[in-house]
Amino acid sequence: MSENKDQKFVYDFTEGNRDLKDLLGGKGANLAEMTNLGLPVPPGFTITTEACKVYLESGTAPAALREEVSAHLAALEAKMGKKLGQSDDPLLVSVRSGAKFSMPGMMDTVLNIGLSDESVKGLAAQAGNERFAWDSYRRLIQMFGKTVLDVDGELFEEALDEAKAAKKVTVDTDLDAADLKKLVTRFKKIVAKQAGREFPQDAREQLDLAVEAVFNSWNTDRAKLYRRQERIPSDLGTAVNICSMVFGNLGPDSGTGVAFTRDPASGHAGVYGDYLQNAQGEDVVAGIRNTVPLADLEAIDKASYDQLMTIMTTLETHYKDLCDIEFTIERGQLWMLQTRVGKRTAGAAFRIATQLVDQGLIDEAEALQRVSGHQLAQLMFPRFDEGAKTTLLGRGIAASPGAAVGKAVFDSYTAVKWSRSGEKVILIRRETNPDDLDGMIASEGILTSRGGKTSHAAVVARGMGKTCVCGAEELDVDTKRRRMTVGDTVIEEGDVVSIDGSTGKVYLGEVPVVPSPVVEYFEGRMHAGADDADELVAAVHRIMAYADRVRRLRVRANADNAEDALRARRFGAQGIGLCRTEHMFLGERRELVERLILADTDGEREEALSALLPLQKKDFVELFEAMDGLPVTVRLLDPPLHEFLPDITELSVRVALAESRKDHNENDLRLLQAVHKLHEQNPMLGLRGVRLGLVIPGLFKMQVRAIAEAAAERKNAKGDPRAEIMVPLVGTVQELEIVRDEADAVIAEVEAATGTSLKLTIGTMIELPRAALTADQIAEAAQFFSFGTNDLTQTVWGFSRDDVEASFFTAYLEKGIFGVSPFETIDKDGVGSLVRHAAKLGRATRPDLKLGVCGEHGGDPESVHFFHEVGLDYVSCSPFRIPVARLEAGRAAAEAKGSDSR
Fold it and tell me: Strand, coil or helix: what is 229?
């Protein structure tokens, strides 16, 4: 973006507020908001995301930025009564990233900016604590070296470990000032050797380089990967927060911590968080030392604890949500370093939303917006069977719930490699760091021996909905030898382990799973509010009930038999949007289809169709009974005929072997000839769908007759069948007109023969670009459209789903060409524009045209919002995704209503 001369690039904390997240990032906006509330926030200022955008686009910071930073820095120095870099009593600042959306650990932070060989002595004298000063200096060199100068962080860690080993201690707090002075000297040598330059002694140079490093961290591989995973736009940029330092590493009366106003794992009210004495903030989230529970702070420093509890109540009431808070205590003085709406597990999201309604802080419409279909889907995953025989290895902190089973791996690279080979893996680390993100994404779950609920592993896992157990101290993780030891038990890489993110338990081997209580609720096997379901099911019930009341979109199921139909109905389906009749031709009926394909005469073909008719009719009778009173959309035969014949290679081998034995099988020979005859270079663009009905006489007539006779039988049995006949792959209205004329004639015959009036509607799938572009013509012969977005995506993009997902989709996702697979979430700009266009054209011709979608996009949360927006009447999806579609349809309606009211 171009630089505006009058543009303001720096804001003091007193100038902003929480509504300026686009400009100040989430951290800066919330620091300003807490300042406005009169909470104890160290003074500071924020460099805007606009400055970052200019830097990333041009490669240099805006011309006005240095002058603005200098002015705000001078004001900060005046307020604090000390200067950055002065030798006797130096002002130190932190430089921290802060994007609009929370990206925990993905971008860079540097603490203790302003320390040098001279000012460290002044800090020691001013604080009366030489150890503290040199500890702060070694931290600066370590963070600056890794973050700004791109030095391998492991080199600093190894030097620190060696210093502790030489002193025969296990934690860094046991190193004294003399030890830390030696460590500073070694760290500076590491920087000089690895970075090719000395560690900068000029404080302003440190500050400017750190700001540029934060800007650059927006485009690190881990940050880009996280944005793709969380679907965060890549053009937002990050703000930079420059804050006067407060110190938690001044001794036992100081410390740092992270607090939550409610448990982010369960949603329960209470005191949740971690505290670490004599530490700086990065120590907590990095899991370097195991923390104590926040509740222990009451015994350590009651005054600070009481003040923190009051502030937490203030923030939750003000933000009307779970708040995640970072704080530091400096010699008994509490300072607030950050707050944000906290990441939470799926179960916590539903519980908290209903709790806040009961407290009168939000209404039901807002509660519905606080949860998502992705979270509901997570709640429907299985859990471990409590009655199963297990071998318990240990127990850690239940950081993110779920039941995860996989092979143990000890580094991110292996996790990704094995996962791509189809293996399910559990990533095991002492503690994770941002560089482990790709391995965390690839894993079924994450297990660490260090850290707590606020560690990097816990926060990122909760955000992704991954199962996570942290701080399992009894597990000795040896990443170099690729093994984990628990007592006498050794778990090598590749051994199977199971982790329970709801209890923190870690098991050896595979533990069997059972259905989740939420699925049991949808199945009707558990009532809302039942004791064993906790209040989770009750919370889900309340929010689902509201979603169903406000949604406009109806939700149907893709189901091909009575069993799936009944399950779909229990899950809340309002009909069947896609019954695929080809599934009724498989199994023992395949022989009849082969007879139909091999028929040489009209008589042979009629005989095969006559044998298939009663079987099809029986299927439809069962289906209409299961969905009595609800619409059932039956798609006529769609796939290419070769799918019903044996594999060409297998059949060729069979025929060749028979010939070698001179034991000819006439039927196999005919089948092989038919397979060769039906062979197509691209069968998904060949003889299928409506084209089959037009070139194979009697095929669609048989199917229509089976549907009509089944409907008549059900109606004569006092049922209420509501069949809809759908013609697939139509590209021109003439195709549909021919099929409809034949269908109308068959239906009339059945009505006359059974004495029953059948109100069967006939429509088509819109799954070809031409159909979408000529939808006004097709609507003249169609009573409904159902968008087949799977095929429409294939034909718009010009690629086959079966081939490309395995060949180049991974590369496209990694390069950012796709934010998400277009088969997972609808491509609004391409496929979506055709859906919008066809809906508009179709209703221009036939205002009462019913519109639905039956591709898998019908159950995708983001796609459901799009279908609501373009005015479809219903979505249809697999039975398991019906609750998700119901919830998202409600959210789409509530969101639209909220936008209208604004």
Answer: helix
Dihedral angle at the C-alpha atoms of 867, 869, 871, 877, nearest 10 degrees? 20
Helix runs in 661-732, H state only: 666-678, 690-695, 699-716
Residues linked to residue 400 through DSSP beta bridges, in sequence order: 468
Phi-psi region of 348 (alpha: psi -120 to 50; beta: other; left: phi over 0): alpha
- C-alpha closest to that of 223 among 458, 438, 415: 438
Active site residues: 456, 854
Distance in angstroms (rounded) separating the CA atoms of residues 227 and 234: 7
Sheet harboring 445-448: ordered strands across? 391-395, 505-508, 496-500, 403-409, 425-429, 445-448, 467-470, 397-400
Q: Do 278 and 254 form a contact (C-beta atoms < 8 A)?
A: yes
Nearest to 380 by CA among 365, 397, 398, 401: 401
**CA 236, 237, 239 angle in degrees (round to 5)?**
120
**DSSP-derived 3-state class of residue 265:** coil
- Concatenating the DSSP letter of every residue in 203-221 gives HHHHHHHHHHHHHHHTTSH
Give per-residue pLDDT as tens, 651-690.
666 666 666 666 666 666 766 666 666 665 666 777 788 9
Dihedral sign, Cα of residue 581, residue 584, residue 589, residue 591:
positive
**Which residues 6+ apart lie within 8 Å of 879 measured at CB?**
557, 558, 559, 564, 567, 568, 571, 573
426 to 213, 379, 810: CA distances (angstroms)? 33, 20, 21
Cα–Cα distance measured from residue 892 to residue 902, given in angstroms and rounded to the nearest whole number: 15
Distance CA 605, CA 358 (A): 67
**Predicted confidence (pLDDT) per residue in 312-343, tens digit:** 999 999 999 999 999 999 999 999 999 999 88
Residue 276, Cβ neighbours under 10 Å: how many? 22
Strand 269-277 relative to strand 292-293, pairing: antiparallel
Q: How far apart are CA 539 and CA 535, in angstroms?
A: 6
First and final CA of the chain: distance in angstroms? 30
With the C-alpha atoms ordered 418, 419, 421, 423, is the resulting torsion angle positive or negative?
positive
Distance CA 461, CA 126 (A): 41
How would you class 6 by CB atoms within 10 Å of its CB: exposed for 0-12, middle for 13-18, buried for 19 or more? exposed
Q: What band does 418 get if pLDDT is binned at 50, 70 and 90?
A: very high
Backbone conformation region of residue 75, classed left if phi is above 0, alpha if psi is from -120 to 50, else beta: alpha
* Contact of 111 with 140, CB cutoff 8 Å: yes
- At position 448, the amino acid (one-letter code) is T
219: its two tokens = 């485009």
Q: Is the pTM of this model over 0.85?
A: no
